[in-house]
Each structure stands twice: as structure tokens, then as C-alpha cells.
TrEMBL record:
Pfam families: Bac_transf. It comes from Desulfosporosinus youngiae DSM 17734. It comes from the Bacteria. This is Glycosyl transferase possibly involved in lipopolysaccharide synthesis. Belongs to the bacterial sugar transferase family. The lineage of its organism: Bacteria, Bacillati, Bacillota, Clostridia, Eubacteriales. Residues 7-181 form the Bacterial sugar transferase domain.
Length: 206
């Protein structure tokens, strides 16, 4: 598709420009994370991209390294740092993914790249979300972010795959700005940022 090729060129140009323009913000975020406690500035994790190809995603670290206290596992929200909470509300934690866009692993707009272990849990239809390059924001993100269930999220992702176009991407971009300003749906619940797919919602495994 001609637009896909044009989209890649636009992704490269705009990610390079943004990395230069917002580098002071990223530097401030990195300093705040370092001052907030021990641990690396960046959170790195392998995720499946287009056609299921695995790549390393980059985000600013928003949680403490400790996963349990007094023998009890800590929830995502208990591990979240004060700096991390602010970064997530403003979506600043996502900025390092501009590096992923520059490298071609990701796009500005597309289905969010999820965990590798989810690959074996998808139905054949849900697997189609990997027909396109994953993005920082997508149709699901402007229609509920982390506040929607998995089934609805996948329906939104598949709608995007079938309707990808410049106008669709523009609509998602403008909707993303509104979501960031509203800070709605940042976390799925008071204890978790997002429930694991295939555990709390086993009926979706197909």
C-alpha cells in the first residue's frame, strides 16, 4: 500500500525532529527518575512487532525494582514511584519509543505492542493486529486507553488494521492529544496498570 511507505518516511522525519526538540524534557525526566531512587532510567522489554517479529521497546522506568515486600507481591500501583505516576499521566514515559520509531520497530500510530507471551493466546483474528507496525498510540488508546477490556481493545485494533489511512491516523493523533490532556484511562484499576490478557479474561483465548 502506497500510504504505508509514505507513513514510514513521515515517521522517520517527525521522530527525528521530535527527539531534537523534546530532548530537554527527556533529560529532565531522566534526572528525575535517577533522583527518585536506584535503578536504570529506561525500562526495556522485548515485544512482538509487525508480523510478530520481536524487538526491544524503550520507556522511561516508572516503577521501583522491588516486586515484593515482607514476602508479599506488590501490585503495579504499589511499585509506582511518584515521578513515575506523573510521567504516566502526561505520557512522558512513552517518549523513548521515538527511538523505536526512528529504527522502524514502531510507528506513531498503530496497535500497541503487547507482551510476547500473548502471541500463543491470540485467536487467528486477533493475530491480525500484527499485520501492521505497532504504534505509540492507536484507535484503542483514544477510545478508553487502559480502561477497556481486552475483547474491546482487540476489536479496536482490528478496526484500525482494516481502515488504516492518512485520515484515520490524523483522527487518532488528534484524539491522542485529547486523551493526554484528560489523563483518563491511564491505569485499568487502582492496583494494576493493565490486567494480563488470558488470565483474568480466559474466555478470550478462543
Amino acid at each position: 500500500m502506497k500510504y504505508i511507505k509514505i507513513k514510514r518516511v513521515m515517521d522517520f522525519i517527525f521522530s527525528l525532529i521530535l527527539l531534537i526538540v523534546i530532548s530537554p524534557i527527556m533529560l529532565c525526566a531522566a534526572v528525575a527518575i535517577k533522583c527518585g531512587g536506584q535503578g536504570p532510567v529506561l525500562f526495556k522489554q522485548e515485544r512482538p512487532g509487525k508480523d510478530g517479529v520481536i524487538f526491544t521497546i524503550y520507556k522511561f522506568r516508572t516503577m521501583r525494582l522491588e516486586t515484593e515486600k515482607d514476602g508479599h507481591p506488590l501490585s503495579d500501583m504499589e511499585r509506582m514511584t511518584r515521578v513515575g505516576m506523573m510521567l504516566r499521566k502526561l505520557s512522558i514515559d512513552e517518549l523513548p519509543q521515538l527511538l523505536n520509531i526512528l529504527r522502524g520497530n514502531m510507528s506513531f500510530i498503530g496497535p500497541r505492542p503487547l507482551l510476547i507471551q500473548y502471541l500463543e493466546r491470540y485467536t487467528p483474528e486477533q493475530m491480525r493486529r500484527h499485520d501492521v507496525t505497532p504504534g505509540i498510540s492507536g484507535w484503542a488508546q483514544i477510545n478508553g486507553r487502559n480502561g477497556i477490556d481486552w475483547e474491546t481493545r482487540f476489536e479496536y485494533d482490528l478496526w484500525y488494521v482494516k481502515n488504516i489511512s492518512f485520515l484515520t491516523d490524523l483522527k487518532i493523533f488528534l484524539g491522542t492529544l485529547a486523551v493526554i490532556l484528560g489523563t483518563r484511562g491511564v491505569n485499568q484499576s487502582k492496583s494494576q496498570t493493565m490486567e494480563e490478557f488470558g488470565v483474568a479474561t480466559k474466555s478470550l483465548k478462543g
